[in-house]
Structure formats: structure tokens, C-alpha cells
Amino acid sequence: MKVAIIMGSISDRNIAEGVQKMLDKFGVAYDTKVISAHRTPYAASEFASKAEEEGYGVIIGIAGKAAHLSGVLAAYTTLPVIGVPVAGSVEGLDALLATVQMPTGVPVATVAINGGKNAGILATEILAVADKSLREKLRAYKEELAAEVDEMNKEL
């Protein structure tokens, strides 16, 4: 299974690169596209409706301002959707609220503002439920993080 990384605008590319970095680390396949919930709503509904049959297991939506992208994608699929709110003129609070405040029945798992790396990790964890090799890679990554903290303590 692969991950879909959907940006609302090309200006979200730097956040998408954080997602890609983590998916590359774990060897997870992905595709990256620009689809706007407001400028190309039909494309958003079409993509989400067909995502499962196209081999996607998780969709990540990245958007700022009136960040409705992840919610629109979630409305048209039963796949897990992860929302990444992007900081903008009000430090991303507008995007955070638009992403996280979803009605019952249309959940979006939301990571931190500009949290592309965590979105990539969460997508990997979702796929790892059915993939032992991914679980092992995630365990090794957590051990790397712990070792980094140990090194910090040695520097004190």
C-alpha cells in the first residue's frame, strides 16, 4: 500500500517534503499531488473516491488558511486521512481549527501545525498495523530517538 500526499497549493511543498523524508526513511511508497478543496473540488472528490482502488492505504492532506482539504478528502473515502495544518497569517490557528473540528462520521487525524514529519510517521504506523517489517523499522526509529536523548544527557 502507498500513501497519498495531497497539498492544497504548491506553497505547501516544504511541508510535503517533511512527509516524504519520513516515508522514504521507512521505505513507504507515495505519490504527491496538488488538489485544492476550493479551486478544484471535483478533483478532490474524484481522487478520494478512487484512492482505495488506486492502491492507497492512507491520505495526507496539507493545507493552510481555510484548510478544508483534509475534511473534503475524508468525506469521500473510508481510508484514514491525516490532516496537516499549515502556518499562515494567524500562525496556523485558522488551519488547525479547520482541520481538527470535523463532524461526527468524518474524522481527520490531525498532527501539529507544519507537522509534516509526524504525518509521515503516523501514516507509516497506520500501514504497519498489517506490515511487520514496517513495525520493526518504526521500533528501530524509536530506539534512535532514545539514543539521541541519551547523547544529550552525556553532553551535560
UniProtKB/TrEMBL annotation:
**Matches recorded under Pfam families:** AIRC
Stated EC number for the protein is: 5.4.99.18
Gene3D superfamilies in the record, alphabetically? 3.40.50.1970
InterPro entries, A to Z: PurE_ClassI (IPR033747), PurE_dom (IPR000031), PurE_prokaryotes (IPR024694)
The entry's substrate-binding residues are 9, 12, 39
Q: GO BP, one example?
A: 'de novo' IMP biosynthetic process
Coiled-coil residue windows: none
Could you list this entry's UniProt keywords, alphabetically sorted: Isomerase, Purine biosynthesis
Q: Can the keyword Cell cycle be found in this entry's annotation?
A: no
Task: Provide the reaction this enzyme catalyses.
Answer: 5-carboxyamino-1-(5-phospho-D-ribosyl)imidazole + H(+) = 5-amino-1-(5-phospho-D-ribosyl)imidazole-4-carboxylate
One GO MF annotation is: 5-(carboxyamino)imidazole ribonucleotide mutase activity
What does the protein in this record do? Answer: Catalyzes the conversion of N5-carboxyaminoimidazole ribonucleotide (N5-CAIR) to 4-carboxy-5-aminoimidazole ribonucleotide (CAIR).
The entry's protein name is: N5-carboxyaminoimidazole ribonucleotide mutase
The species this protein was found in? Urinicoccus massiliensis
